[in-house]
């Protein structure tokens, strides 16, 4: 049966982007505390690669025509020709495992921001449902403990941190220390954690093998700044009738690896979906801090929205009447209030 196709966006900050000869170069610019994620290089011979199971990939960024080349699945190199905000795009591919590699061939600047891929979540016509497992259970008094969905193995140490921003996580700094979990009834798995200057290499093993995870894979979560809720591992095209185990191993002594949460996305077959299901088909997953599915409104909610809209229209006419009266009395004061109300919230 044909796959249920869904779009997946992964930011350049994700360790599933593999950069060479190193993930982060010397810091020669001032970084802001927020903004668009970006990897940039002027190094000739630098490269990146990303693998996925699907039918299309669009690599977003900017560069100079002829300043880089790309290959797909080990094929012939194609000279770069950026267009419409993409460095390269491939669609209409066979539904199978693919690897895109980009190599810089000059010292002209090249920027990468994200990859948009079309992947499979269950079979065609499936209904998408999400289940989220936070790594840490935090009680009302602030104490934290590892959620039983996860297990640890090795000498550790393993820490359960919960900072002021509410970003809970299980982390370890011991080489050889492992964090794992098992699941079933899921067509895709997305794991979210942190990247930072004090993070390093880790490996991921999916058993049984599936998608592009046919063997143990190695990633690097080094970053020049602390990035929350980054996609540290994901795999699609899973068999929802199988039970899988995902095992992470920290490979660098004294360097951090952590997990914040796991999102299991299931493509429930049409024959098994109930009419009252709140999830919708064709949902997109991304690196957002709160991954979720689109939801449908119940009849009661629709009625409530309709009543609310009517009330809002009546209220608008009422306030328009008051505004006209007030404007005649004190036009200057109203204009000052209007400008204040239209400003973006702090």
Automatic annotation (TrEMBL):
Transmembrane domains' residue ranges: 301-324
Gene3D superfamilies, sorted: Galactose-binding domain-like
Region: Disordered, residue numbers: 270-295
Keyword Transmembrane helix: yes
Protein origin, superkingdom: Eukaryota
Keywords: Membrane, Transmembrane, Transmembrane helix
Protein name per the record: Uncharacterized protein
């Amino acid at each position: 049966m044909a796959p249920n196709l869904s779009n997946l966006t992964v930011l350049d900050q994700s360790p599933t982007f593999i950069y060479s000869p190193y993930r982060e170069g010397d810091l020669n610019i001032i970084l802001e505390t927020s903004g668009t994620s970006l990897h940039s290089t002027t190094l000739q011979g630098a490269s990146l690669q990303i693998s996925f199971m699907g039918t299309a990939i669009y690599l977003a960024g900017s560069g100079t025509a002829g300043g880089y080349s790309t290959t797909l699945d080990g094929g012939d190199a194609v000279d770069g020709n950026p267009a419409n905000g993409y460095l390269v795009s491939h669609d209409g591919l066979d539904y199978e495992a693919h690897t895109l590699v980009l190599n810089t061939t000059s010292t002209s600047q090249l920027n990468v921001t994200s990859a948009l891929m079309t992947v499979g979540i269950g079979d065609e016509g499936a209904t998408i449902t999400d289940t989220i497992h936070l790594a840490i259970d935090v009680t009302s008094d602030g104490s934290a403990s590892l959620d039983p969905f996860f297990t640890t193995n090795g000498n550790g140490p393993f820490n359960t941190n919960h900072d002021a921003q509410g970003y809970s996580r299980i982390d370890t700094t011991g080489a050889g220390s492992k964090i794992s979990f098992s699941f079933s009834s899921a067509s895709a798995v997305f794991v979210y954690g942190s990247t930072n200057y004090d993070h390093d290499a880790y490996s991921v093993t999916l058993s049984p093998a599936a998608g592009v995870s046919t063997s143990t894979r190695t990633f690097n979560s080094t970053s020049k700044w602390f990035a929350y809720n980054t996609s540290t591992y994901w795999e699609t095209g899973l068999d929802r009738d199988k039970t899988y185990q995902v095992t992470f191993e920290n490979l660098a002594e004294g360097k951090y690896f952590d997990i914040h949460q796991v999102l299991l996305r299931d493509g429930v077959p049409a024959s098994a979906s109930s009419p009252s299901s709140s999830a919708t088909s064709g949902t997109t997953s991304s690196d957002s801090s709160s991954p979720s599915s689109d939801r449908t409104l119940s009849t009661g909610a629709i009625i409530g929205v309709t009543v609310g809209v009517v009330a809002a229209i009546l209220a608008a006419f009422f306030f328009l009447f008051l505004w006209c009266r007030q404007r005649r009395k004190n036009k200057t004061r109203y204009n000052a209030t209007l400008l204040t109300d239209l400003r973006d919230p702090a």
